[in-house]
């Protein structure tokens, strides 16, 4: 049982370490979602085993899903907070991430050159 908990937690942490966007920045949605899934799975397994049902696997599954969802929502909010909104001379808005003017997108999602 203890080995399963360690493996579940390690898998969540390893997945979060690999979460990045294609342009080199961190993707907080994936990163925090993976961390939440790992922590939720561990907590769910412990709770599921201690409640008396003895079904740690079901608790780990439910905890992983709930933790992943909560982590992804939190990460998505952080990704939005990292966006910087600008306006060009023509009045059109575009977004840049992490104050890097090299990675900008128009409001419709197209990359700004």
Verbal overview:
The chain has helices at residues 2-17, 28-50, 56-81; strands at residues 83-87, 93-97, 104-106, 111-112. A four-stranded antiparallel beta sheet has the order 1-2-3-4. The protein has 113 residues and is α+β, with helices and mostly antiparallel strands. It starts with a helix and ends with a strand. The model has no long low-confidence stretch (mean pLDDT 75). A hairpin with a 4-residue loop joins β3 and β4 (111-112). It comes from Brevundimonas goettingensis. Pfam families: Gly-zipper_YMGG. Residues 1-19 form the signal peptide. InterPro entries: Gly-zipper_YMGG (IPR027367).
Write the layout of secondary structure elements.
Blueprint: H1 2-17, H2 28-50, H3 56-81, E1 83-87, E2 93-97, E3 104-106, E4 111-112
Antiparallel strand pairs: 1-2, 2-3, 3-4
Provide a brief overview of the structure:
Residues 1-19 form the signal peptide. By secondary structure, the chain is an alpha+beta fold.
């Amino acid at each position: 049982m203890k080995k399963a908990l360690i493996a579940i937690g390690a898998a969540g942490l390893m997945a979060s370490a690999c979460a990045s966007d294609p342009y080199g920045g961190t993707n907080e949605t994936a990163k925090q979602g993976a961390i939440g899934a790992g922590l939720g799975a561990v907590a769910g397994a412990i709770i599921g085993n201690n409640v008396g049902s003895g079904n740690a696997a079901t608790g780990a599954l439910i905890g992983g899903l709930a933790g992943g969802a909560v982590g992804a929502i939190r990460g998505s909010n952080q990704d939005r907070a990292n966006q910087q909104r600008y306006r060009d001379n023509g009045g059109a808005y575009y977004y840049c991430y992490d104050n890097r003017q090299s990675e900008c997108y128009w409001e419709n999602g197209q990359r700004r050159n």
